[in-house]
Task: inverse folding
């Protein structure tokens, strides 16, 4: 091994075989290594042990309401663009048991000791890392925090990856989140044909990497990586004009635009866009009681503003129509979110477009709204 | 003295018995159920019958014979709460396909002596004959939802039943959308949740056995499905299935033919 001093910001070249050893080191340190896998002709995030578990040579074809895997395009592990699954499920699980009480002499809490899992996320894209940082603002606040999220988040090890092959529904360049990773990570990969360029983002990342055999990348190799990243920007599938956001969506007169009626005819109100969205955070707490009324449990589940029951309050529904629910979602995500959390709620990952069964393209919807109100 | 336990009666009309079997399949919870209520009439489980009236009547099956009309009226008289159990009882079930055909012709094709049969030309949900207090959809029903409804009745509270479409359940369990990723026709977006998205999670499209989601946007899903049909009339057939007689599916199945021809 060369005697190279590495520190935060250093980029090294790591062979793919050495990367597998790095994954093994992570597990030895108590991390559960999770990353992309092919499942049911899609890609999901699940346990991985080595690079062999990843979707090698797989690219994805994505358009509104359309997702297909394409095989054999390359031998690389990260040439695909993620599918419906997002890292959200590891930090903000779809179902969490909040509490159980049992009737004894009085009502008693049933204590359950569950160890918080320590995840090492392998292959986090720029848009996805930005999404995690948005959810941080929601779940970890100065005045209060969600314990489930916070404990999982604090134990996280993040291996990010720069995107070199954006999909048709990607628009991260418009949102300023990619394809080059912008946020805070431990290590960040750029995958070339026979090597990973690894940029060190944290002390934890540095100390882990220091145990592996690496090299300083040649100027030639770094040049290739830069060229491919520049090409990825050019190949971005979609582009969103963000100039007048959030104003375009939050102006009171724009809330009555005809476009909302038009899109409401197509929207299924199924909520798929919100479930695949890596920043959507709505949840419902449901109570259940056993037959003999001696035990009760409260469970938190993912919910959606497209679920009519979500906006039901005593006496009626504040958003009784699909038009009202779609408008709520879009104006929150690209508008009111800014006031609430200091950033827009979208990172340009494109999942809401790809996974809409009705093929609604939210980028096109915003453009159509802009055209209507400016005409 | 302990309060008298509420009595439950389970009845079968025209059906396959699958929903009654779901009750028997409660296994772990069956003893709890027997502890909380007095199962007074349940021929599929026991021939011991206690006389009515009953507090809760669970009715499986649809009304397909003149005799069944009389029987269901007697059951209504005899019960405080009538719960229609499963798709046959809530929408007529698969046998309601006769509503779109000639029942007599079916009878002739199946039986050597159709003249011995006494049947109606239609199979209809229980609610078309008597007032029903609660409907639990599904083919078969989700046993946990049945238990929840009984628990809610006993505890004098509203049952906690899902009010969204299958898509939300599908996404919560991390299943891959078969419509988007495979091009498989799926009724998930317009179907009432409650099943746990079993079919999409196993790679096949939802065929709507839990019935129409009251808020479903059929006007959007029908053209989406007809545009990618693998054979003409596929969407129509998908809707004309276990819940063919449910009004929303009935209307959408008609629309699928019109849209398909365009």
Result:
């Amino acid at each position: 091994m060369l005697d190279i001093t590495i520190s935060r910001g250093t980029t090294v070249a790591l062979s793919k075989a050495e990367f597998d050893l790095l994954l093994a080191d992570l597990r030895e340190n108590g991390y559960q290594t999770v990353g992309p896998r092919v499942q049911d002709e899609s890609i999901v995030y699940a346990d991985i042990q080595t690079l062999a578990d990843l979707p090698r040579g797989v690219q994805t074809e994505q358009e509104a309401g359309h997702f297909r895997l394409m095989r054999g395009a390359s031998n690389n592990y990260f040439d695909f663009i993620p599918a419906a699954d997002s890292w959200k499920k590891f930090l903000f699980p779809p179902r969490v048991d909040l509490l159980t009480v049992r009737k004894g002499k009085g009502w008693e809490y049933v204590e359950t000791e569950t160890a918080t899992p320590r995840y090492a996320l392998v292959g986090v894209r720029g848009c996805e890392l930005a999404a995690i940082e948005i959810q941080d603002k929601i779940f970890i606040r100065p005045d209060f925090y969600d314990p489930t999220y916070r404990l999982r988040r604090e134990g996280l090890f993040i291996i990010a990856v720069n995107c070199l092959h954006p999909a048709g529904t990607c628009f991260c360049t418009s949102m300023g989140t990619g394809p080059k990773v912008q946020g805070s990570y431990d290590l960040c990969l750029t995958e070339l044909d026979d090597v990973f360029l690894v940029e060190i983002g944290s002390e934890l990342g540095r100390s882990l990497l220091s145990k592996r055999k690496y090299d300083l990348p040649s100027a030639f190799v770094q040049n290739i990586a830069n060229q491919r990243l520049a090409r990825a920007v050019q190949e971005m599938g979609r582009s969103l004009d963000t100039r007048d956001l959030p104003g375009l969506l939050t102006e009171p007169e724009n809330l009555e635009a005809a476009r909302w009626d038009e899109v409401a005819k197509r929207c299924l109100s199924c909520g798929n866009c919100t479930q695949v969205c890596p920043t959507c955070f709505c949840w419902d707490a449901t109570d259940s009681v056993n037959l003999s009324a001696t035990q009760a449990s409260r469970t938190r589940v993912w919910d959606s503003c497209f679920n009519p029951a979500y906006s039901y309050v005593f006496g009626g529904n504040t958003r009784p129509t699909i038009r009202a629910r779609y408008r709520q979602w879009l104006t929150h995500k690209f508008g009111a979110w800014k006031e609430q959390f200091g950033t827009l709620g979208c990172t340009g990952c494109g999942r809401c477009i790809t996974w809409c069964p009705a093929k609604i393209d939210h980028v096109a919807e915003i453009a159509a709204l802009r055209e209507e109100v400016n005409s | 003295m302990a309060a008298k336990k509420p009595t439950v009666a389970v009845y079968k009309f025209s059906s396959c018995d699958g929903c009654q079997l779901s009750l028997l399949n409660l296994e772990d919870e069956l003893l709890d159920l027997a502890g909380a209520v007095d199962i007074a009439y349940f021929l599929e489980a026991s021939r011991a019958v206690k006389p009515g009236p009953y507090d809760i009547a669970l009715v499986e099956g649809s009304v397909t014979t003149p005799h069944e009309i009389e029987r269901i009226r007697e059951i209504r008289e005899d019960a405080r709460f009538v719960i229609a159990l499963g798709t046959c009882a809530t929408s007529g079930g698969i046998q309601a396909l006769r509503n779109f055909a000639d029942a007599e012709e079916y009878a002739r094709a199946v039986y050597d002596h159709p003249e011995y049969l006494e049947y109606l030309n239609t199979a209809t949900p229980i609610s078309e004959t008597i007032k029903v207090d609660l409907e639990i959809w599904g083919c078969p029903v989700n046993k946990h939802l049945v238990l929840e409804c009984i628990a809610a009745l006993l505890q004098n509270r509203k049952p906690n039943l899902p009010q969204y479409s299958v898509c939300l359940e599908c996404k919560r369990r991390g299943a891959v959308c078969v419509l988007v990723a495979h091009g498989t026709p799926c009724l998930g977006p317009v179907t009432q949740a409650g099943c746990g998205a079993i079919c999409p999670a196993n790679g096949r499209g939802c065929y709507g056995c839990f019935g129409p989601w009251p808020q479903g946007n059929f006007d959007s899903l029908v053209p989406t499905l007809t545009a990618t049909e693998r054979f003409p009339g596929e969407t129509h057939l998908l809707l004309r299935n276990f819940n063919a007689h449910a009004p929303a599916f009935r209307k959408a199945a008609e629309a699928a033919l019109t849209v398909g021809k365009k």
Chain B touches chain A at residues 29, 32-33, 35-36, 147-148, 150-151, 154-155, 157, 160, 163-165, 167-168, 171-177, 179-182, 186, 188-190, 203, 215-217, 219-221, 224 (CB under 8 Å). The mean pLDDT of chain B is 95. Residues 247-261 of chain B form the longest helix (15 residues). Strands of chain B lie at 7-12, 38-42, 54-60, 79-85, 134-136.
